[in-house]
Specification:
Dna Topoisomerase Vi A Subunit, Chain: A, domain 2; five-stranded antiparallel β-sheet; DNA Primase, Chain A; alpha+beta; DNA primase DNAg catalytic core, N-terminal domain
Length: 569
């Protein structure tokens, strides 16, 4: 495994990898960009080609190509390894002991892959005909690996047991549930199966649409995998693994409600389409999209439930830092039926003519308002909360002007009303960001240590690193240096970037570093003098002549050292 990791690093630079996700610009020896992990207007995300690392000073994340892909794609290490190995053209080779010692997650991934193969092999002519009638062609059916769960009680469970998967693993993967007799009953029966993959393309769960003569009329139309160690509905978007490249290319994502809507949209040429899987659109979903693009078009079903869902999705997307538009679908058809009955050009027109969320809401409310006063109250109660969620001050100001114009009131009046609207509670992402911000290290000792870390990492350091380290220890003390050396690698990498950004290849680095050490030494000696003086006073008060003599000598020596430093300065 270590050989594979090194081969990938040899073939892919940090710039090769990061530049596929964000636009990098030169900043001294480094490159910088707007961080893909949090909303920001001023770039605080830096990449060091020399060290093969990145760090964001806004949200305090950093690492190498593997941690970057893990973070940006929402993967574990093995998922990032798979993605990077494919980019580098490197075959993943596992050592014999690694093959024998697979962890539980690996087993679940293998189980779900086996279940996917089982379901797809069972796709009947009748099910295929139904999918064709819904407008899907064989290429789409094959690409998205659609399958069929029959009416038997435990056919997929029995198949997995033959492959040596245990009952516990089958239950944990969400493929089956325990029955009253203590055996296993398949979770999905009489359903067309849509495999759901993580960003690396590994199957993590399923969605099943009711199908067949034997299906119970009381069964829900769609059934999704339960929450499992691999499948978290609030963090997984159906089709995201296949939409990533198109989202990046078009700098936009399209959100639809169901699997068939997504498949029809992809088939119609909108490969940047994603869908939620059995849950509402969340801030975590927004964060997943924002790793690739800032722009989202919401195209949910045009019925009342779909319009409400679009509104909830829009708020979550705005809170996640996305620019949000809403597509108004004609004819009251959902995306799949619209594409099937009226053609892909009508669908494309709806996406291209999507309106900013605030404009869309104003248009809908104006259309249904019974009076001017009714319109005003609706705008105040419905539109202003969305306006609060808009993260860009410029966009918010623009929308505020539009609201004032529509209502025929002053911008000041709208601003006053807006100030009274409560903000949404902070998300988990916001809390984590605030916690990381509170840990920033800014004192002089840390600054001097940052220079040491940076110079250590260079093959052609400007300073005599050994001499500088000795002088730093003399300036801050052995204990303080040990505390700095105990910082986490992430904090240390942040400090390297800090020093590199501040000094670059500055010809005055040596003199500036020395001046900093002198200041630190003066501060340390002054602290020690203060402590010695306090100890002297205490000894004098207690009449302890022996300690008076010791502390007197210490104060004299420290005073002399400080005076010598001031002469040098």
């Amino acid at each position: 495994m270590s050989d594979t990791v090194q081969q990938i690093k040899d073939r892919l630079s940090i710039v090769d990898v990061v530049s596929q996700y964000v636009k990098l610009e030169r900043s001294g020896q480094n490159l910088r960009a707007r961080c893909p992990f949090h909303a920001e207007r001023t770039p605080s995300f830096f990449v060091s080609p020399e060290r093969g690392t990145y760090h964001c000073f806004g949200c305090n994340v950093g690492g190498d190509i593997f941690s970057f892909v893990q973070q940006v794609e929402g993967l574990d290490f093995k998922g990032a390894l798979k993605v990077l190995a494919e980019k580098a053209g490197v075959e993943i080779v596992y050592a014999r002991e690694e093959k024998q010692d697979k962890d539980e997650r690996d087993r679940l991934f293998e189980l779900l892959e086996a279940a996917t193969i089982f379901y797809s092999s069972r796709l009947s002519d009748q099910a295929r005909k139904y999918l064709h009638e819904r407008g899907l062609n064989d290429a789409t059916i094959q690409t998205f690996r659609l399958g069929l769960a029959g009416g038997e009680w435990s056919e997929v469970s029995d198949s997995l047991k033959i492959k040596k998967f245990t009952d516990r693993e089958i239950l944990e993967a969400g493929v089956a549930k325990k029955n009253e007799r203590g055996g296993l009953t398949d979770k999905f029966r009489n359903r067309i199966i849509f495999p759901i993959a993580d960003p690396a393309g590994r199957v993590v769960g399923f969605s099943g649409r009711i199908f067949g003569e034997n299906a119970s009329p009381e069964a829900p139309k769609y059934l999704n995998s339960p929450e499992t160690p691999l499948f978290h509905k609030s963090r997984i978007l159906y089709g995201f693994d296949k939409a990533k490249l198109s989202m990046r290319k078009h700098n936009c994502a399209v959100l639809v409600e169901g699997q068939l809507d997504l498949l029809a949209s992809h088939q119609a040429g909108w490969a940047n389409t994603v869908a939620v899987s059995g849950t509402a659109f969340t801030v975590e979903h927004a964060a997943l999209i924002r790793r690739i693009t800032d722009n989202l078009v919401i195209a949910l079903d045009p019925d009342p439930a779909g319009i409400k869902a679009a509104g909830r999705a829009a708020r979550a997307a705005l809170q996640g830092g996305l620019n949000v538009k809403v597509a108004k679908l004609p004819s009251g058809l959902d995306p799949a039926d619209l594409i099937l009955k009226e053609g892909k050009d009508v669908w494309s027109k709806a996406i291209r003519e999507a309106k900013e969320i605030i404009t869309f809401l104003l248009d809908v409310l104006a259309e249904h308002a019974k009076s001017t006063d009714n319109f005003r109250r609706s705008v105040e109660s419905i539109v202003l909360p969305y306006l609060v969620d808009v993260s860009s001050p410029i966009a918010r100001e623009s929308h505020l002007r539009e609201v004032a114009k529509r209502l025929g009131v002053s911008e000041h009046a709208v601003s006053e009303a807006l100030a009274k609207v409560p903000k949404a509670p902070p998300t988990t992402l916001d809390v984590e960001r605030e916690q990381s911000d509170s840990k920033r290290l800014t004192d002089r000792a840390t600054h001097a240590y940052a220079i040491l870390l940076w110079q250590r990492s260079l093959p052609d350091a400007q300073l005599d690193v050994s001499a500088y380290e000795r002088d730093l220890e003399a300036s801050v003390g052995t204990e303080a240096l040990q505390e700095l050396e105990a910082l986490s690698e992430q904090e240390r990498e942040k400090l390297r970037f800090t020093a590199e950004q501040m000094y670059g290849r500055s010809p005055t680095l040596n003199s500036r570093a020395r001046s900093l050490l002198e200041v630190l030494l003066k501060e340390r000696l002054s602290r020690e003098l203060s402590q010695a003086t306090d100890a002297l006073r205490k000894a004098e008060g207690e009449g302890d002549e022996d300690h008076v003599a010791i502390h007197m000598k210490s104060t004299e020596l420290l005073t002399q050292k400080i005076a010598e430093l001031h002469k040098k300065g």
